[in-house]
Amino acid sequence: MAQGLDVGTMNILSARQDGNDTVFVQQRNSFVEIDYSDMAEQMLSRSDVLHIRKDNKVYIVGDDALNFANIFNEETRRPMEAGILSSDEQSAIPMIKLITEQVVGEPERPGELLYFSVPADPIDGDVSTLYHQKTIESLLADMGYEPEPINEGMSVIYSELANQEFTGLGISFGAGMTNVCLSYYAVPVMKFSIARGGDWVDEQAAKATGTPVDKVTSIKEEDFSLDFETDVGGVEGALSIYYDNLLDYVIEMIIKEVDEEDVEEGLDVPVVVTGGTSSPDGFEELFKERLDDAQIPFSISGVQQAENPLYSVAQGALVAARSEEQRATQEQPAEEAAEVENE
User: Fold this and answer.
1) Three-state DSSP state, 285
2) pLDDT of residue 244
3) Are residues 191 and 70 part of one domain?
4) Range with the lowest mean pLDDT among 61-65, 164-168, 271-275, 328-332?
5) Quick one: 231 exposed, middle or buried, by C-beta within 10 A (0-12, 13-18, 19+)?
6) What is the mean pLDDT of residues 153-158?
7) Which runs of consecutive H residues, i.e. helices, occur in 113-160?
């Protein structure tokens, strides 16, 4: 059975079909380091906290990392930064391997097909995503999967625009990057990323208010709304300001790239937004308002938000994986029949 995987800066999520239901498994893509002691290791093991020991340190990984960071007033560390594996974090590869193993589990059969999301190279930064893609591909292959990369923006199209014949503008607002893909009947016309996302918003709000970044992230994820009715001096006010700035910047980059790619002006397409950064109440309305005010070179038939923004990329990867699996299954009998005939 095929599987989809969203390798995100903030979260890693898998999607697998179980009958008529899609089952998602999620872990936060972060860890925190504490000093080792026998007592600490015993307590962590009894509490089923995901962790590993290395020398005289214990690394608490996944969802529990943020809780420990807030309790001990520490900053979490990330295997990924700005949408790709962090070059500054020596523990990046073993940590992301551990988290990924927890999320996807063992393959049901050797060579199980697994589509995993990869970002496009950012148009506003000198960064290549190739090393990140090949490293994740190697980790998954070592686990027994047959990995296949899929562009993150295209995953959004597969997940959310089946009823529009996979035609539209898909935008994934992630933590490390914002990925954009314009598709026409499932063929990507334009795909790129922007080197700003939810992490940029959190970091700017933290600097403005003197609040730890992890605390800002917790506030944003709990019950933050983009209503612009909060006090400007607080964390929520700062988040609103930088969210507003992020949307203006993303739209500016979209217009710039559309002009450079010379996209057909006669297009009339829907826009779908997704990703964990798009989760706050009011995001869809604010983005639609900003798009209405912008001079987009093609017509937009409507703006919609994914029903489950956090799960959308993993869902799209699963759709692509299952489609490829079905195609391969249909081709196999024909190939076998041809071999018999040739004999």
Assistant:
1) helix
2) 94
3) no
4) 328-332
5) exposed
6) 96
7) 130-142, 152-160
Question: Domain range spanning residue 42?
Answer: 30-76
Report how many domains make up the chain: 2
With 0.90 as the threshold, say if the pTM is over it: no
Query: 35: buried, middle or exposed (CB in 10 Å: 19+, 13-18, 0-12)?
Result: exposed
Domain-located, residue 25? no
**Mean pLDDT estimate for the chain:** 89
Q: What is the DSSP letter of 225?
A: B
Is the distance from CB of 23 to CB of 1 less than 8 angstroms?
Answer: no
Residue 99 counted as domain residue? no
> Tokens 């937009």 belong to which residue?
300
Residues 298 and 189 in one domain: yes
Model pLDDT, residue 230: 61
CB–CB of 178/193 below 8 Å? yes
Residue 335 pLDDT > 70, yes or no? no
Spatial contact of 243 and 281, defined as CB atoms under 8 Å apart: no
Establish if 117 belongs to a structural domain: no
